[in-house]
Amino acid sequence: MNTQSPDVKAIFSYRKYWAARFGTAPFLPMSRAEMDELGWDSCDIILVTGDCYIDHPSFGMALVGRLLESQGFRVGIIAQPDWQSAEPFRALGRPNLFFGVTAGNMDSMINRYTADRKPRSDDAYTPHGEPNKRPDRAVTVYAQRCREAYPGVGVMIGSIEASLRRIAHYDYWSDKVRPSVLISSKADLLLYGNAERALVEIAHRAAAGEKLSEIRDVRGTAFIVPHCWRPDESWQEMDSTTVDVPGRVDPLLNPYEEIPEQAAKQAEANGGAATVQPIKFMNVHDRVAIRRAQRAKTVVRIPAYEAVAYDPVLYAHASRVLHLESNPGNARALVQMHGERDVWLNPPPIPLTTEEMDFVFGQPYARNPHPSYGKAHIPAWEMIKYSVNIMRGCFGGCTFCSITEHEGRIIQSRSEESILKEIEEIRDKTEGFTGHISDLGGPTANMYRLACKDKAIETKCRKLSCVYPDVCENLNTDHSSLIQLYRKARAIPGVKKINIQSGLRYDLAVKSPEYIKELVTHHVGGYLKIAPEHTEEGPLSKMMKPGMGAYDKFKALFEKFSKEAGKEQYLIPYFIAAHPGTSDEDMLNLALWLKKNDFRLDQVQTFTPTPMAMATTMWHTRRNPLKKLARSSEKVDVVRDGYRRKLHKAFLRYHHPDNWQILYDALIDMGRQDLIGYGRHQLIPPVPPKGGEDKGKRFNTARTAHHPTRRFQDAPPPGARRPQPRTGGKPAPAAKGGGKPAARGKPTGRR
User: Fold this and answer.
1) Is the peptide bond before 469 cis (omega within 30 degrees of 0)?
2) Is residue 585 included in any domain, yes or no?
3) What is the pLDDT of residue 290?
4) Which of 396, 408, 413 is nearest to 449 (CA)?
5) Which of its termini does the chain have fewer beta carbons within 10 Å around, N or C?
6) What per-residue confidence (pLDDT) applies to 2?
7) pTM to 2 decimals?
8) How confident is the model at residue 404 (pLDDT cuts 50, 70, 90)?
9) How many other β-carbons are positioned within 10 Å of the β-carbon of residue 304?
């Protein structure tokens, strides 16, 4: 069970605000009529969100709203307002304390556009999946409208969209570096990460009369201040280049020489200036205390917005420093100049304890969409309503993923009691429950209660990942708590099946074969999705993902335990096309691996540069921020033009006739004509040349209908057909024991 410093106030220990006398609302109100029914004349806090309102802890505004309600505040919600005017933002009146603004569970740009910058045709967080119910860069637009609706009212922004835009960042959709979202939104405060601790403290301080624009000492917050502002005179500033660039290295001292002799030698080397002083012994606790006090009063200045917008090397350097200063145990404040002002980032928030996690997830959620939506189909709700979130955070550090930047590397887990109670609530309260829990996980399936073996080491560590290039020797990889949780969850009356669908870290799972056996025997519904992402060392090193050796070990154990359980089960791997550091040859080798292992991928993912991710830094700068930076640093191959992105995606779907022409041309250019043909070792069949005598003729797809896969060692993805042996024109005989065809279905997400 994780604990925290005694000087950190628990979120459930505050004295409740006077409005607690109104009690708990069945749903947080979205209209004046609902406020009247509750006896409210006003709201203390109004939350504005780009999602529809579903009162369930998996949806950010419900979790934040119920948490604030637990503190005694009257909380209203304005969900998916029409942003064309300020009037919809006046629907609940003027808030007594402040507006809280979020784009929703997803970044609004990723929600609205594909990896190829094309508008999406639906929105999973909107009734009936209707698109265009939120604006581009929703946090900025909503915050500006709140200011327009009620000038003078405090505005706080948060959610993953604000969190990933807290400093100057590359914006994929406009293809330029944009300033911190604080500049464009004109908000008083930005809360980044999972901000429950900061939110509760700020709400109580605002209720006591402080303005948001005056609150400057809360961890996990960012704000705008005048250039060179300091909280007090004791603070010191250091340049970020001193964080990541080593200083002069003095020669090692000979332990057998006397101090005067060492001093004389160094004085001679330094032109007469002695640098060695007699040793002064100090208690280790005093030294640590002094060092911590100095760090707590130090702000690191990273290159200004104008500098990183112009200079790719400085952009990559700023990104690297931000990620190095992300451990709550040792991170320092950061500051970045924007014009004549500074954007100041306080250190990351202290993670929640298990008791606090239980408190957050134990609020009286209605576990249903707001009644105003009637029986509307809400895709995100249909996906999540029978699932349980057991933890948050991820120490994987994958460079293309935003989980670490938003939730942090320290795992925050709920207790068994809290999780089992939520399963019982799903059974008793959620309409349509048939005994199947769709998922028991979080950002990752198997990091529950995993942490550093030594808290002292954890607070000092500056590694970007605990599992790359290999699992850290200081990491506790014991899965016994998770195994025990699975067994207790299965034993709940009325629960027939519990599936595990969150992203599985197979490099961690192989450390616990007992866990794999438990998973395979009881919690895999025929298919298990995992994400090796690639097979080649070049792109894997830029992703900070393990090599295929870990995948092979996991696959062997998966198949062994499936066989022992008498089940026919298959792995479905996910791969990324066009990731920074990926060459055309890398994609060709991946395609050959897919063919060798009889995989026909139905859906594939093209890399999308998301703000603040390390891979996005590579995409924009062509530099590798995973290493120390210089003008002469390694250049990263970046797949930016449309043709190469399409080609890399085609390699993943080499079996589809629509991709044969582009692959044919690429293989000719690469000098790999040996891979064109009908042989088992060849990738695609011959295709007619462009123009000439074959112009206008269709490919003879009958001959290649089942090429290149004639059997499956692993299952095809959902929707793929199993090739049938030729039987002289007659249907192939059914296999012994029958069997169901692979179910069609669109995966709901990568993780």
Assistant:
1) yes
2) no
3) 66
4) 413
5) N
6) 53
7) 0.86
8) confident
9) 20
Torsion of CA 630, 631, 635, 639, to 10 degrees: 110
Q: Is the pLDDT of residue 660 over 70?
A: yes
Using 50, 70 and 90 to split pLDDT, how confident is the model at 30? very high
Q: Which helix (H) or strand (E) holds 242?
A: helix 241-244
What is the CB neighbour count within 10 angstroms for residue 179? 19
What the block records as the tokens of 593 is: 């691996």
Contact 685, 654 (CB under 8 A): no
The predicted-structure confidence for 110-137, as pLDDT tens digits, reads as follows: 999 999 999 999 999 999 999 999 999 9
Coil, strand, or helix at residue 226? strand
CA angle 405/100/439 to nearest 5° reads 50
Whole-number Cα distances in Å, 270 to 111, 277, 278: 60, 14, 18
Report the C-alpha gap between 352 and 2 in whole angstroms: 8
With beta carbons less than 8 A apart as the criterion, state whether 614 and 580 touch.
no
Q: What's 571's DSSP letter?
A: E
Dist CA 511 CA 471 (whole Å)? 9
Cα 56 → chain centroid: 20
Helix axis angle for 660-669 and 642-652, nearest 10°, is: 110
Q: Which of 145-149, 209-213, 292-296, 310-314 has the lowest mean pLDDT?
A: 292-296
Percent share of the chain, pLDDT over 70:
84
Domain with 150 in it: what CATH number? 3.40.50
Whether 729 shows a pLDDT value over 50: the answer reads: no
Q: By C-alpha distance, which of 55, 23, 13 is closest to 356?
A: 13
Phi, psi for residue 99 in degrees, rounded to 5 = -95, 140
Angle between helices 354-361 and 60-70 (to 10 degrees): 100
Tell me if 199 is assigned to some domain: yes
Lookup result for tokens 């060709």: 588
Spatial CA neighbour of 378 closest among 150, 128, 136: 128
pLDDT surpasses 50 at 739: no
Domain membership of residue 177 as a residue range: 18-225+339-345
pLDDT at 723: 37
The three-class DSSP label of residue 676 is strand
Q: What CA–CA distance (Å, rounded) separates 48 from 161?
A: 14
**177 assigned to some structural domain:** yes
Phi, psi (degrees; rounded to nearest 5) at 438: -75, -25
Task: Give me the amino acid identity at 93.
Answer: G
169 within domain boundaries: yes
Say how many domains are in the chain: 1
d(CA 75, CA 126): 21
Whole-Å CA distances, 222 to 67, 171, 180, 212, 634: 21, 20, 10, 11, 32
Whole-number CA gyration radius for the chain: 28
Amino acid identity for residue 577 in this structure: A
| Residue whose entry in the numeric block shows the structure tokens 């599936």 | 499
- The count of other CB atoms within 10 Å of the CB of residue 427 is 17
Q: What is the pLDDT of residues 228-243, one digit of tens each?
A: 999 999 999 999 987 7
The whole-angstrom separation of Cα 348 and Cα 502 is 26
Residue 716's Cβ-count burial label (10 Å; 0-12, 13-18, 19+) is buried
What mean pLDDT comes out for the span 92-116?
97
